[in-house]
């Protein structure tokens, strides 16, 4: 799932004159807004307009181009060609399910009227889900909170949810020691404050997770020493990394050699499976593939019996969720319990300028695991030269990953992704995109009727 980025100094594409574009002003406009109206700037993402009028989104930390939005056409480019001066291809991934009527059931276990083509068996075309489950039963909140009692924000979350300024850690360890950063990412992941992929890099998703931690626990861990971080890890589940023995189930697949860009070619595959044991293992442990390889140099991940070092991310959170916020400015999804306490926060990709996500409040109508995906150009968008309806089989590398939470606004949903490294750093076609593992965790905590409020 790791995507190849075209890495180039952003200075070579930005207009030199400050009058044409002010990056700081754009960042200030692209901000998160909590229910009390407080604006928090989104750190780590730069936006610029090039000489052709294209909107360039790039990572301030690495200067990697994340996406290019074409003016007038609204076309969004997320896989950058080797030569950016060449003609840019159509968007490679899209997220809307076709228009239709939702079912009365919480789960898509019957033949749906919704034209989403969800199989009767949610495990169709895939291996059996692990026993710990991606659709877990709802249990009471954790009794032994690893930190202080989460702060109470009252029975009316929309009016009383408390906020904090975005954390911008000045801890030098975050920028100079990848192992320290990875350990912090693992701690945040355990606490339900997802940093996205664990890659040992201090970026915007880490900072957003740190902000959520300050809200949930009223603590600031940005100045931890390595020893203090290790102590926090020990108190929340043990060391950051574990030794794992690769199993035959990890290496047997089924795998596909590659995932084609063209939807017509996708529809010909038996499943949108992983492309390798490495990809499957990286997703299993919430890790970036390149970081997993760096952590285990010279390892053949296709050999069962091989021992490797993996992230110790702990168990899924199971607290029942009553309300969700999809914050467009922060590119983050936050979920709350019955009392309005923040339970989980995930980095997210939420719409784009050309295809914005909804506004206002909607509800979750259906939860589907490993759904088929129906491409219908007459309803949503046109991908490449495909003019006919296509059914793309299920799998983690499908357009909506392996989870679909259908919303009450037709064609929109919260779902997974085949490209976890791009979450929070790219655009979508209106839906709310999470990493597959975050989408699976959220699916296990919600039920039909849970409200989803889109914050502009």
Describe this structure in words.
Helix content is 18%, strand content 18%. Helix 4 (178-190) runs parallel beside helix 6 (226-235). It starts with 22 loop residues before the first helix and ends with a strand. It is built from eleven helices and 19 strands. A hairpin with a 4-residue loop joins strand 9 and strand 10. The chain is an alpha+beta fold. It is globular. It has a nine-stranded mixed β-sheet, with helices on both faces. A four-stranded antiparallel β-sheet has the order 3-4-5-6. The chain has a two-stranded antiparallel ribbon with strand order 1-2.
Strand order of the largest sheet: 11-10-9-19-13-16-17-18-12
- What is Rg? 21 Å
Quantity of strands, as a count: 19
Number of helices: 11
Residues in helices, as a percent range: 10-25%
Q: What percentage of the residues does DSSP assign to strands (E)?
A: 15-25%
State the major sheet.
9 strands, mixed
Mean pLDDT: 74
Task: Provide the structure class.
Answer: alpha+beta
Calculate the terminal CA-CA distance, rounded to whole Å.
30 Å
- In the predicted model, the low-confidence regions spanning at least 5 consecutive residues are 1-43, 81-167
Q: Please identify the oligomeric state.
A: single chain
Topology pattern, helix = H, strand = E = HEEEEEEHHHHHEHHHHEEEEEEEEEEEHE
Mass-distribution shape: globular
Which short descriptors sum up this protein?
single chain; alpha+beta; four-stranded antiparallel sheet; 11 helices; disordered N terminus; 456 residues; nine-stranded mixed sheet
């Amino acid at each position: 799932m790791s995507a190849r980025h075209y890495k180039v100094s952003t200075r070579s594409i930005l207009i030199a004159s400050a009058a044409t574009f002010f990056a700081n002003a754009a960042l200030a406009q692209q901000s998160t807004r909590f229910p009390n109206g407080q604006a928090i700037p989104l750190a780590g993402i730069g936006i610029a307009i090039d000489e052709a009028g294209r909107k360039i989104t790039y990572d301030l930390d690495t200067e990697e181009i994340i996406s290019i939005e074409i003016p007038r056409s609204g076309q969004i480019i997320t896989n950058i060609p080797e030569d950016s001066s060449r003609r840019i291809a159509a968007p490679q991934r899209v997220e809307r399910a076709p228009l239709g009527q939702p079912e009365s059931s919480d789960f898509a276990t019957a033949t749906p009227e919704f034209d989403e083509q969800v199989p009767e068996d949610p495990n169709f075309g895939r291996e059996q889900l692990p026993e710990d489950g991606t659709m877990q039963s709802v249990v009471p909140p954790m009794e032994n909170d690893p930190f202080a009692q989460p702060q109470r924000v009252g029975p009316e979350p929309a009016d009383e949810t408390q906020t904090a300024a975005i954390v911008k850690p000045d801890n030098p360890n975050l920028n100079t020691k990848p192992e320290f950063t990875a350990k912090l990412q693992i701690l945040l992941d355990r606490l339900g404050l997802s940093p996205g992929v664990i890659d040992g890099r201090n970026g915007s998703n880490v900072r957003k997770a740190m902000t959520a931690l300050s809200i949930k626990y009223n603590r600031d861990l940005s100045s931890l020493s390595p020893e203090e971080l290790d102590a926090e890890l020990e108190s929340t589940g043990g060391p950051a990394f574990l030794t794992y023995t690769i199993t035959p189930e990890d290496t047997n697949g089924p795998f596909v050699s590659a995932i084609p860009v063209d939807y017509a070619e996708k529809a010909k595959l038996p499943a949108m499976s992983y492309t390798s044991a490495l990809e499957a293992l990286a997703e299993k442990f919430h890790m970036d593939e390149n970081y997993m390889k760096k952590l285990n140099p010279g390892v053949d991940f296709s050999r069962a019996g091989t021992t490797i070092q993996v992230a110790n991310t702990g168990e899924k959170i199971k607290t029942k969720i009553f309300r969700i916020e999809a914050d467009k400015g922060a590119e983050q999804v936050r979920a709350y319990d019955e009392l309005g306490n923040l339970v989980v926060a995930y980095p997210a990709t939420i719409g784009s300028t050309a295809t914005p996500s909804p506004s206002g409040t909607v509800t979750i109508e259906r939860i589907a695991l490993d759904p088929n995906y129906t491409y219908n150009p007459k309803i949503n968008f046109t991908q490449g030269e495909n003019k006919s309806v296509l059914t793309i089989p299920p799998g983690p590398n499908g357009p909506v990953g392996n989870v679909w939470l259908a919303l009450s606004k037709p064609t929109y949903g919260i779902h997974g992704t085949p490209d976890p490294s791009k979450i929070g750093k790219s655009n979508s076609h209106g839906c709310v995109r999470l990493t597959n593992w975050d989408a699976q965790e959220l699916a296990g905590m919600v039920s039909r009727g849970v409200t989803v409020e889109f914050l502009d």
